[in-house]
Amino acid sequence: MNLVRTADDSSTSHLGAASVKSTKQLLVTSMVVSALALLAVRPASAQAAGWSGWARCEVNTQGPGYEQKDTHTWFVNGARGSTTATQGTGSWQVVGKGNLSQGNPAQTAMRAAWAINGGSTPASDVRFGVVTVATGQVAIRRFHSQLGTQGAVVGYVQQIISNSPRTPTTISGTVWEWQFPTVQGSATGQTIAGTSSTTHPGIGWGYMQASGSTITSTCSWQFGNGYAPSPPPAIALEPPPDPSGSQPPPSPPPPPSQPPADPCQVPVRGSGTVRIVGVVPRSFREGDRITVCGSQLSRAALEDQYAVDASIPSLSSPNTATFVLIGQRSLMMLDPVISRRGDRIVFTAGRLYERSELSTDYDVLVPVEQPPQRWAGELTLRLQGTTDVVAGPKVVWNAR
Asked: Cα separation of 111 and 102, whole Å?
């Protein structure tokens, strides 16, 4: 789970953020984008003088529980030089799909799937040119700004809590044009053809891309001087995923056993002060269910910190979130529940956060970029209406 707000996807060079739309709206959007994409990638029937042909890049993004594959195809017609008068026209199409599956369905998990269908339209400014890169060598390059298609990413996201799938939510996002490959060859030759394979470390590309993902691109191209080579094999549009098929298989029933013992054992009664007498378990990972035992815990202020993107200092309204302190760092509390008697707080352990030094106006919490394998400290809760804290036992947060 990520509290950091991102900029509007129309100003970035990667796939945009998800937005909720009705299924009917998404299907209509998908059909419109599909029709435009089919028009965009059809090569011209009559080729002009100059270099004409095609290039294609298959982009593969792989990460923990994450995969996206998108194929970008460009057609170029009549590129002769780098000036406006000598540049050639062209088109761009992208087709792909992706999926995400993270967490433990028996506790908290998230699944998502999406289709990608986008590309240029007849009204798009798509231009390619030819430049001299060395004696007797020319390169065919893209001369237009990066293209994008809003609503080209269509799919759903679904949460599973305690093996119970929640209602899927539809998502829609923007797809962006991949970088045009390096196409270079003899200036006096009749054909330029080739392939390349590249790894792209440290970039964000995939929709809902998982942390630690690797991105590779495999490209091929073929261009003719004064003629157009045969086009590459056509790629069918990707149908939107069906949320009805996203239900996980039911877990087998657990073997008969005795009811679990109360983790708090005997509740603390008759105490007028806030106390923490125990935490079960004392060592846990992200996604584990945690129980804080004590008295008067209903007086704990669970929503007293903020989490915003520190790179956006102009953001006027920070997002509130729920945290518990472990030493000098904050642990996100997912789905916290306080008992009516105030003798326990039960929550799911989330990500580890720390304070940012980039803002002086209000508290800013950002995810720890490189979490330690273990982070230990006293578990403390802030009290309502004060800056006081109540300390509990030492606990250990473990990275995955």
From this structure: 7
What is the domain count for the chain? 2
**Final residue of a domain: which of 230, 246, 262?**
246
Alpha-carbon distance of 382 to 386, in angstroms, equals 8
Which of 339, 318, 197 has its CA nearest to residue 262?
339
The encoded tokens of residue 272 equal 């007028």
Cβ(129)–Cβ(82) below 8 Å: yes
Residue 157 pLDDT more than 80? Answer: yes
Q: Are residues 282 and 213 in the same domain?
A: no
Q: Does a structural domain hold residue 259?
A: no
CATH number of the domain residue 354 falls in: 2.60.40
375 in Cβ contact with 367 (< 8 Å): no
> Do both 28 and 82 map to the same domain?
yes
**Cβ distance 368 to 354 under 8 Å?**
yes
pLDDT tens string 4-15: 333 333 333 333
Dig out the tokens for 263 from the structure: 């983790």
Closest Cα partner for 342 from 382, 381, 296, 380? 296
* Token couple for 351: 């990500």
The DSSP letter of residue 312 is -
* Domain boundaries, position 339: 275-398
| Cross-strand bridge partners of residue 109 | 103, 160
Element housing 393 (H / E): strand 389-398
Sign of CA dihedral 262, 267, 273, 279: negative
- The pLDDT, as a whole number, for residue 156 is 95
Q: Does an H or E element contain 150, and which?
A: strand 148-161
Residues 376, 395 contacting (CB under 8 angstroms): yes
| CA–CA separation, 349 and 333 (whole Å) | 6
Containing 280, the helix (H) or strand (E) segment is: strand 275-280
Question: Checking DSSP bridges between strand 323-326 and strand 374-382, what pairing results, if any?
Answer: antiparallel
Q: What single-letter DSSP state applies at residue 298?
A: G
3-class DSSP state for residue 93? strand
What token pair was written down for 228?
Answer: 């157009």
93: which 2 tokens? Answer: 């199409």
Q: What pLDDT digit, counting tens, does each position of 81-109 carry? A: 999 999 999 999 999 999 999 998 888 99
Q: Evaluate whether residue 3 is within a structural domain.
A: no
Question: Does residue 72 fall inside a structural domain?
Answer: yes
**Inside any domain, residue 267:** no
